[in-house]
Structures are given as C-alpha cells and as structure tokens.
Amino acid sequence: MQNRLSGKHVAFIAGQGVEHSHLAKPMQELRRMGAQISVIASSPDVLVTDTKETYKVDKAVAVADPEDYHAVVVSGGAEIATLKPVLEFLRTFEKSGKPVGATSQGVPVLIAAELMKDRQATSDPRHQALVDAAGGTWRDCEVVVDDLVITTRHTKDLPAFSQALAKALLD
C-alpha cells in the first residue's frame, strides 16, 4: 500500500491563499502512497495558504509541461481561474487522457477551463449553480468520478478523494 504509486508524478496547481487542507491533505496522502509531488503555481515563488503555511513552488505553470505528470490536482486559490497558462495546462492535460482532480475550491477553475460541460461533479454547495451553468450536473456526495475527472466537496471528504485519484492513477 505504501509504495503503490511509486513512479507516478502528480502536479498540484494552486494559487495564493489556497485552503491549506485542500492542498496539504491530498499531497500527504498521495506522497504516503509513493507518488512524487510537485507544486505548480502562477509564479516560481513561495505559495502561501489561507493559514499562512508556505510551500516551495516547483515550477511556474507557464513553463510546466503536462507530459511530465501522470495526474493533476487543482486545489484552488482565487486568481488561478483567470490565468490563461493554468487554463491551457488543464485543457491539454484533460485531452491527454490522464486524471484531473479538483478539490471543492478547485472546481471553479475546471469550469473556467471549460472542463465541466456534460460532466457530473461535486464541490462546495456554493458552486452548484456554477457547475450547472457550465453544462455539468452537480451532485452532493463525497467524491464524483466522471471518466478521469475527479471532484470532491469538503475537507472531510479528502481521504476518499485521494483514494479515488490513486485508483485512477493505477487503472
């Protein structure tokens, strides 16, 4: 169990002020399973969460290559939904047929990247209207897996999210 994701490289895309638990918990769980983790952000500086925890940014999204990763997780952070390099990275990644995950605060970023049309998703209930307006169907459950797009709604659901992402990486 501990090394079942050995050889898998997962990118975490986040913006400044990202909810700490939505970044840290899945990163810790996937790392515990043996995955290599990289933090990608809008600039190659330090990422600061809502609780003022800091993370070293491994690569700026503008220079990150989707081919270098086996999965991507969008953890949120307000400004990233408006950044063209983030949206292009996600569109390219989704077209490659590899898992795309989003915690509840990352779902609006998937919407901005136009990845929700005809998909089912979950998120914080405040985003239900956004998912529906984007042509998706919002569901109130801990994790939704729609093809290779995996979404979750709350901090308490992050363990199930991490397990669903690990399963998708192994399939």
Could you explain how this protein is built, in words?
It is a single chain. This protein is of the alpha/beta class and 171 residues long. 29% of the residues lie in helices and 24% in strands. It is built from five helices and eleven strands. Strands 5-2-1-6-7-11-10 form a seven-stranded mixed β-sheet, sandwiched between helices. It has a two-stranded antiparallel sheet with strand order 3-4. Strands 8-9 form a two-stranded parallel ribbon. Strand 8, helix 4 and strand 9 form a beta-alpha-beta unit. Helix 1 (20-32) crosses helix 5. The chain is globular and about 35 Å long. The two termini are 15 Å apart. The model has no long low-confidence stretch (mean pLDDT 95).
